[in-house]
Design a protein that fits this description.
By secondary structure, the protein is mainly α. It has one domain. The chain is built from seven helices and four strands.
């Protein structure tokens, strides 16, 4: 959460909301792994584009509990960063460092576990054991959910994405694209002699 009067780089995704539940969702493992799956890369880093990631993410109903956890994450993480005089990247490097057992970092991990559990409840998927811990990923060792949970989350998100899209099509919310070079039936008569 940052003041709205800042000027941001064109490559930065900015979410214009003050909803702490949205912060919780955006900080969750389901969103992270969806972003990893859907984003392009720039060198070794992901390039998050809202049209490929956020707009295709089937979002759950945002809950009061997720709002509280998003607020807890925002306040606690800010306090940790200020106390350590560290930025976001340096702080999360510690979160993902198996050798870091500092209590403030361990608490930050616990907040993320609680967010992930609440997001899964919001989706109705609290049947899936997440098994948080230090796991190998393409991005290196990360404190995250186990690989089997990651894959199941991605499968369920994709299925939900398809289901919601089909519902939108049935409601007429998606127009069929017209073939290039052809005029609509209403405009065809404009060129008749």
């Amino acid at each position: 959460m940052v003041p709205a009067r800042q000027v941001f780089s064109h490559a930065l995704a900015v979410f214009a909301t003050d909803d702490l539940a949205m912060l919780g969702l955006l900080s969750s493992a389901p969103h992270y792994w969806w972003a990893i799956e859907r984003s392009s890369t720039l060198e070794t880093r992901i390039r998050y584009t809202p049209s490929d990631v956020f707009e295709t993410l089937p979002r759950p109903e945002l809950t009061e509990a997720l709002w509280r956890l998003g607020g807890r994450l925002d306040a606690y993480r800010r306090d940790v960063m200020l106390a350590r005089q560290a930025g976001l990247t340096a702080t999360y490097n510690l979160v993902h460092d198996k050798g870091c057992g500092d209590e403030d970092i361990a608490e930050l991990r616990r907040i993320h576990v609680a967010i992930d559990e609440e997001v899964m409840r919001a989706y109705g998927w609290d049947d899936l054991p997440l098994e948080h811990g230090f796991h190998d990923t393409r991005q290196g060792a990360r404190y995250t959910v186990v690989r089997t949970a990651r894959q199941e989350i991605l499968d369920r998100l994709l299925e939900l994405n398809h289901k919601r899209y089909a519902e939108e099509v049935a409601k007429g919310l998606h127009e069929k694209k017209k073939a290039k070079g052809k005029l609509s039936p209403q405009r065809e008569g404009l060129f008749d002699a």
